[in-house]
Amino acid sequence: MPSTYISLCNQVLRRLNEVEIVEAEFTTVRGVQALAKDAIITAQAKINQAEFEWPFNASEETDILNVGVEEYVWPTFYKTTDWNSFQIQKSDSLGVDFTTLKYMDRDEYYQNHRDTDQNAGSEGRGVPMYVFPSHGNGYGVTPSPDKAYFIKFRYYLNYAALINSYDQTRIPDSFDSVLVDGAVYQMYMFKDNMQAAQAAFIAFEKGLKDLQTLYINNYEYIRDTRVRF
To answer: The pTM is what?
Structure first.
C-alpha cells in the first residue's frame, strides 16, 4: 500500500535531521518543513514523468455512450490509453454482445465516416465498431451509437496532486526510498550543498532504473511461424 504524504515528508526530514511534521500542523508548516512537502511533490512528478505506463497507475473506465454522439472526454487524471482495450459491453436489454472496437486514425474517420455520422443526427447509426482519437482531450467512436451502450477501456493515470496529510502517491511503499532520494536531492539543492545533492541524485537515478527494470522492461513474446516442408 502506498505511503501517505506526511509519512514521506517525515522520512525526508529524518534524513536531514530536521524536526518532523505533526499532523495537526501539516497544512500550516513553514520553512524547511514546507520545503519537504514541495520536494515530495517534485519527486513524485519526476517518477511519473519517467514512464507513460507504470503499472501502479493502471486504471479502467466504463462510460455510457450518448445516442448520436461520437466524441467523449477522457477521465480525470488521464495520461495515456490502451487503444486495443475499447470494448462495447454485453447487454441483453440493448441487444448487443461484447464487441471489441478497432482503432482508426482520426484522418480516416474524417474522410470516411464523419459525414455519415453527422447526417444521421441525434438518432445515431448503430453499434460502434471503431474508436479514434478525437480533436482534443478525448476519444471518438463510429458508427455513432443508436442506443446508450456501455463502453469499457483501460488507461493509465497521471499523478494526482498531494494536498492533505493522508493523500497517497500510488507508488508502492517498497519504493519509498526512491521518492525520498528524489526529495532529498531537491532539499540539498535548496541548501546549496552540491556534493550531497549529487550523491542523492545518483541514488535517485539508480532507484528509478530499478523501478523501470521491475515494472517496464519486459521482453516481448516471439513465436516462430515458419512451416517446414
So the answer is: 0.81
Task: Using DSSP bridges, classify how beta strands 102-103 and 130-133 pair: parallel, antiparallel or unpaired.
Answer: parallel
Per-residue pLDDT tens listing for the chain (229 residues): 688 999 999 999 999 999 999 999 999 999 999 999 999 999 999 999 998 889 999 999 999 999 999 999 999 999 999 999 999 999 999 999 999 999 999 999 999 999 999 999 999 999 999 999 999 889 999 999 999 999 999 999 998 889 999 999 999 888 999 999 999 999 999 888 999 999 999 999 999 999 998 888 765 556 666 766 6
Does 61 share its domain with 151?
Answer: yes
How far apart CA 66 and CA 79 sit, in angstroms, is 24
Are residues 107 and 44 located together in one domain of the fold?
A: no
* Spatial CA neighbour of 142 closest among 112, 185, 97: 112
* Number of folded domains that form the chain: 2
Residues 89 and 109 in one domain: yes
Same-domain check for residues 62 and 147: yes
